[in-house]
Amino acid sequence: MHMLARFKRHIPTLIAVLTLLAAWEAWVRLAHVPSTMISSPSEIAEAIVQTWPTLAPAAAVTGFEGVAGFLLAVLLGIMIGMAFYCSHTLNAALYPLLAAAQTMPLISIAPLFLIWFGFEISGKIAIVAVFGLFPIAVQTIRGLQAVPRYYTDVALTCGASRTWTLWHVKLRVAARQIFGGIRVSGAYIFATASTAEYLGARKGMGIWLQAAYNSFRTPLVFAATVVIVLMTAVLLFAVNVGERLILGPLEDDEDPDADQ
Protein backbone atom coordinates (compact mmCIF):
# COMPACT_ATOMS: atom_id res chain seq x y z
CA MET A 1 0.00 0.00 0.00
CA HIS A 2 2.85 2.37 0.83
CA MET A 3 4.51 1.85 -2.56
CA LEU A 4 1.15 2.28 -4.31
CA ALA A 5 0.56 5.56 -2.47
CA ARG A 6 4.00 6.85 -3.49
CA PHE A 7 3.33 5.86 -7.11
CA LYS A 8 0.03 7.75 -7.08
CA ARG A 9 1.85 10.89 -5.98
CA HIS A 10 3.93 10.78 -9.18
CA ILE A 11 1.00 10.15 -11.54
CA PRO A 12 0.37 13.91 -12.22
CA THR A 13 4.04 14.35 -13.16
CA LEU A 14 3.92 11.32 -15.46
CA ILE A 15 0.76 12.59 -17.15
CA ALA A 16 2.28 16.06 -17.61
CA VAL A 17 5.45 14.64 -19.19
CA LEU A 18 3.52 12.36 -21.57
CA THR A 19 1.22 15.22 -22.54
CA LEU A 20 4.18 17.52 -23.23
CA LEU A 21 5.90 14.88 -25.35
CA ALA A 22 2.71 14.19 -27.33
CA ALA A 23 2.15 17.91 -27.96
CA TRP A 24 5.80 18.34 -28.96
CA GLU A 25 5.59 15.42 -31.40
CA ALA A 26 2.33 16.67 -32.91
CA TRP A 27 3.60 20.23 -33.32
CA VAL A 28 6.79 19.17 -35.12
CA ARG A 29 4.92 16.81 -37.45
CA LEU A 30 1.85 18.93 -38.20
CA ALA A 31 3.79 22.19 -38.58
CA HIS A 32 6.45 20.43 -40.67
CA VAL A 33 9.22 21.94 -38.57
CA PRO A 34 12.64 21.16 -40.14
CA SER A 35 14.64 18.62 -38.15
CA THR A 36 17.64 20.94 -38.36
CA MET A 37 15.68 23.47 -36.31
CA ILE A 38 14.08 21.24 -33.68
CA SER A 39 13.67 17.47 -33.49
CA SER A 40 10.60 15.53 -32.43
CA PRO A 41 10.77 13.09 -29.48
CA SER A 42 10.59 10.15 -31.90
CA GLU A 43 13.53 11.51 -33.92
CA ILE A 44 15.52 12.02 -30.73
CA ALA A 45 14.79 8.46 -29.59
CA GLU A 46 15.80 7.15 -33.00
CA ALA A 47 19.03 9.16 -32.88
CA ILE A 48 19.87 7.71 -29.47
CA VAL A 49 19.37 4.16 -30.71
CA GLN A 50 21.33 4.68 -33.94
CA THR A 51 24.29 6.44 -32.32
CA TRP A 52 24.41 4.39 -29.11
CA PRO A 53 27.68 2.61 -30.05
CA THR A 54 29.47 5.98 -29.92
CA LEU A 55 27.14 7.77 -27.51
CA ALA A 56 27.49 5.18 -24.73
CA PRO A 57 31.32 5.39 -24.45
CA ALA A 58 31.13 9.19 -24.41
CA ALA A 59 28.48 9.06 -21.68
CA ALA A 60 30.65 6.62 -19.69
CA VAL A 61 33.59 9.06 -19.73
CA THR A 62 31.43 11.99 -18.64
CA GLY A 63 29.71 9.79 -16.06
CA PHE A 64 33.02 8.82 -14.51
CA GLU A 65 34.23 12.43 -14.43
CA GLY A 66 30.94 13.62 -12.96
CA VAL A 67 30.64 10.96 -10.25
CA ALA A 68 34.30 11.23 -9.22
CA GLY A 69 34.13 15.03 -9.09
CA PHE A 70 30.80 14.89 -7.27
CA LEU A 71 32.11 12.57 -4.55
CA LEU A 72 35.13 14.82 -4.13
CA ALA A 73 32.85 17.87 -3.95
CA VAL A 74 30.73 16.21 -1.24
CA LEU A 75 33.79 15.38 0.85
CA LEU A 76 35.44 18.78 0.43
CA GLY A 77 32.17 20.69 0.76
CA ILE A 78 31.28 19.09 4.09
CA MET A 79 34.82 19.45 5.46
CA ILE A 80 35.05 23.10 4.38
CA GLY A 81 31.59 23.81 5.82
CA MET A 82 32.54 22.25 9.15
CA ALA A 83 35.82 24.17 9.24
CA PHE A 84 34.07 27.48 8.54
CA TYR A 85 31.45 26.71 11.18
CA CYS A 86 34.06 25.91 13.83
CA SER A 87 36.26 28.92 13.09
CA HIS A 88 34.61 32.33 12.94
CA THR A 89 37.93 33.83 11.86
CA LEU A 90 38.24 31.40 8.96
CA ASN A 91 34.63 32.04 8.00
CA ALA A 92 35.03 35.81 8.04
CA ALA A 93 38.31 35.69 6.11
CA LEU A 94 37.64 33.08 3.43
CA TYR A 95 33.87 32.75 2.98
CA PRO A 96 33.65 35.85 0.74
CA LEU A 97 36.47 34.43 -1.39
CA LEU A 98 34.67 31.08 -1.66
CA ALA A 99 31.48 32.83 -2.73
CA ALA A 100 33.37 35.00 -5.22
CA ALA A 101 35.05 31.95 -6.74
CA GLN A 102 31.66 30.44 -7.52
CA THR A 103 30.53 33.54 -9.43
CA MET A 104 33.27 33.14 -12.03
CA PRO A 105 31.95 31.60 -15.26
CA LEU A 106 33.20 28.16 -16.24
CA ILE A 107 34.40 29.46 -19.61
CA SER A 108 36.93 31.72 -17.85
CA ILE A 109 38.19 29.01 -15.48
CA ALA A 110 38.41 26.05 -17.86
CA PRO A 111 41.44 27.42 -19.79
CA LEU A 112 43.43 27.52 -16.54
CA PHE A 113 42.59 23.89 -15.81
CA LEU A 114 43.60 23.02 -19.37
CA ILE A 115 46.98 24.65 -18.74
CA TRP A 116 47.39 22.86 -15.39
CA PHE A 117 45.99 19.42 -16.28
CA GLY A 118 46.01 19.36 -20.07
CA PHE A 119 43.26 17.38 -21.77
CA GLU A 120 43.31 14.62 -19.16
CA ILE A 121 40.23 13.43 -17.28
CA SER A 122 41.74 14.59 -13.97
CA GLY A 123 41.24 18.21 -15.03
CA LYS A 124 37.53 17.66 -15.64
CA ILE A 125 37.17 15.96 -12.26
CA ALA A 126 38.85 18.94 -10.60
CA ILE A 127 36.54 21.40 -12.38
CA VAL A 128 33.44 19.43 -11.35
CA ALA A 129 34.64 19.26 -7.74
CA VAL A 130 35.41 22.99 -7.56
CA PHE A 131 32.06 24.05 -9.02
CA GLY A 132 30.14 21.44 -7.02
CA LEU A 133 31.41 22.03 -3.50
CA PHE A 134 30.01 25.52 -2.90
CA PRO A 135 26.30 24.67 -2.30
CA ILE A 136 27.36 21.74 -0.11
CA ALA A 137 29.68 23.90 1.97
CA VAL A 138 27.06 26.65 2.34
CA GLN A 139 24.32 24.24 3.39
CA THR A 140 26.69 22.54 5.82
CA ILE A 141 27.44 25.88 7.48
CA ARG A 142 23.79 26.90 7.61
CA GLY A 143 22.66 23.48 8.76
CA LEU A 144 25.12 23.43 11.65
CA GLN A 145 24.21 26.98 12.61
CA ALA A 146 20.52 26.03 12.67
CA VAL A 147 20.97 23.14 15.13
CA PRO A 148 19.11 24.06 18.35
CA ARG A 149 21.44 24.76 21.25
CA TYR A 150 19.79 22.21 23.54
CA TYR A 151 21.20 19.35 21.46
CA THR A 152 24.71 20.52 22.34
CA ASP A 153 23.79 21.18 25.96
CA VAL A 154 22.37 17.69 26.44
CA ALA A 155 25.37 16.01 24.82
CA LEU A 156 27.88 18.03 26.87
CA THR A 157 25.91 17.42 30.06
CA CYS A 158 26.13 13.68 29.40
CA GLY A 159 29.92 13.92 29.22
CA ALA A 160 30.45 14.11 25.46
CA SER A 161 33.31 16.18 24.11
CA ARG A 162 32.72 19.10 21.75
CA THR A 163 34.37 17.18 18.90
CA TRP A 164 32.13 14.13 19.48
CA THR A 165 29.09 16.39 19.73
CA LEU A 166 29.95 18.05 16.42
CA TRP A 167 30.38 14.76 14.55
CA HIS A 168 27.64 12.67 16.15
CA VAL A 169 25.00 15.20 17.17
CA LYS A 170 25.18 18.46 15.24
CA LEU A 171 26.15 16.89 11.94
CA ARG A 172 23.35 14.37 12.29
CA VAL A 173 20.73 17.05 13.01
CA ALA A 174 22.02 19.20 10.13
CA ALA A 175 22.17 16.27 7.71
CA ARG A 176 18.83 17.01 6.02
CA GLN A 177 19.97 20.50 5.08
CA ILE A 178 23.36 19.19 3.97
CA PHE A 179 21.64 16.70 1.68
CA GLY A 180 19.71 19.65 0.23
CA GLY A 181 23.03 21.19 -0.79
CA ILE A 182 24.20 17.86 -2.18
CA ARG A 183 21.10 17.65 -4.36
CA VAL A 184 21.64 21.19 -5.67
CA SER A 185 25.23 20.30 -6.51
CA GLY A 186 24.25 17.01 -8.15
CA ALA A 187 21.79 18.73 -10.46
CA TYR A 188 24.64 20.46 -12.34
CA ILE A 189 27.43 17.88 -12.14
CA PHE A 190 27.16 16.27 -15.59
CA ALA A 191 26.31 19.56 -17.28
CA THR A 192 29.49 21.04 -15.79
CA ALA A 193 31.56 18.04 -16.88
CA SER A 194 30.14 18.18 -20.42
CA THR A 195 30.79 21.92 -20.71
CA ALA A 196 34.36 21.45 -19.50
CA GLU A 197 34.85 18.73 -22.13
CA TYR A 198 33.35 20.97 -24.80
CA LEU A 199 35.95 23.60 -24.00
CA GLY A 200 38.82 21.13 -24.20
CA ALA A 201 39.05 17.35 -23.93
CA ARG A 202 39.86 14.21 -25.88
CA LYS A 203 36.57 12.40 -25.33
CA GLY A 204 33.27 12.61 -23.51
CA MET A 205 29.80 14.04 -24.02
CA GLY A 206 31.21 17.52 -24.61
CA ILE A 207 33.29 16.33 -27.55
CA TRP A 208 30.34 14.28 -28.84
CA LEU A 209 28.12 17.37 -28.64
CA GLN A 210 30.74 19.46 -30.40
CA ALA A 211 30.87 16.99 -33.29
CA ALA A 212 27.07 16.95 -33.55
CA TYR A 213 26.94 20.76 -33.53
CA ASN A 214 29.69 21.11 -36.15
CA SER A 215 27.79 18.78 -38.49
CA PHE A 216 24.45 20.58 -37.82
CA ARG A 217 22.81 17.31 -36.74
CA THR A 218 20.17 18.67 -34.39
CA PRO A 219 18.72 15.27 -33.39
CA LEU A 220 22.13 14.26 -32.06
CA VAL A 221 22.36 17.43 -29.98
CA PHE A 222 18.99 16.63 -28.44
CA ALA A 223 20.03 12.99 -27.97
CA ALA A 224 23.10 14.01 -25.98
CA THR A 225 20.99 16.41 -23.93
CA VAL A 226 18.51 13.65 -23.08
CA VAL A 227 21.33 11.34 -21.99
CA ILE A 228 22.82 14.03 -19.73
CA VAL A 229 19.40 14.67 -18.18
CA LEU A 230 18.88 10.95 -17.57
CA MET A 231 22.34 10.63 -16.01
CA THR A 232 21.52 13.54 -13.70
CA ALA A 233 18.20 11.93 -12.75
CA VAL A 234 19.98 8.69 -11.84
CA LEU A 235 22.50 10.58 -9.71
CA LEU A 236 19.77 12.50 -7.86
CA PHE A 237 17.87 9.24 -7.31
CA ALA A 238 21.03 7.75 -5.79
CA VAL A 239 21.35 10.78 -3.50
CA ASN A 240 17.74 10.36 -2.37
CA VAL A 241 18.31 6.65 -1.70
CA GLY A 242 21.46 7.47 0.26
CA GLU A 243 19.57 10.02 2.33
CA ARG A 244 16.84 7.48 3.13
CA LEU A 245 19.38 4.82 4.09
CA ILE A 246 21.32 7.17 6.36
CA LEU A 247 18.53 9.30 7.84
CA GLY A 248 15.36 7.33 7.17
CA PRO A 249 12.30 8.48 5.19
CA LEU A 250 10.78 11.92 5.52
CA GLU A 251 7.66 12.31 7.64
CA ASP A 252 5.52 12.89 4.52
CA ASP A 253 6.78 9.62 3.06
CA GLU A 254 5.98 7.73 6.25
CA ASP A 255 2.34 8.93 6.18
CA PRO A 256 0.79 8.49 2.72
CA ASP A 257 -2.46 10.08 3.95
CA ALA A 258 -0.74 13.20 5.28
CA ASP A 259 -2.15 15.39 2.50
CA GLN A 260 -5.67 13.99 2.79
Structure report:
The protein has 12 helices and no strands. It has 260 residues and is an all-alpha fold. It has 2 domains: 1-33; 40-254, MetI-like (MetI-like fold, Orthogonal Bundle), CATH 1.10.3720.10. α2 (41-86) runs antiparallel to α3 (88-103), α5 runs antiparallel to α9 (189-199) and α8 runs antiparallel to α11.
Task: Map the helices and strands.
Layout (H helix, E strand, L loop, with lengths): L1 H29 L10 H46 L1 H16 L2 H12 L3 H25 L3 H9 L4 H12 L1 H12 L2 H11 L5 H10 L3 H30 L3 H4 L6
Helix pairs in contact: 2-3, 2-5, 2-8, 2-9, 2-10, 2-11, 4-5, 4-9, 5-8, 5-9, 6-7, 8-11, 9-10, 9-11, 10-11
In short:
The protein has two domains: 1-33; 40-254, MetI-like fold, CATH 1.10.3720.10. The protein has 260 residues and is mainly α. It is 83% helix and 0% strand.
Strand content: under 5%
For the termini, the CA-CA separation is: 15 Å
CATH class of the largest domain, named Mainly Alpha
Q: What is the string of SSEs from the N terminus onward?
A: HHHHHHHHHHHH
Tally of strands = 0
Q: Could you name the CATH topology of the largest domain?
A: MetI-like fold
List keywords for this structure.
about 260 residues, mainly alpha, MetI-like fold, 2 domains, 12 helices, globular, disordered C terminus
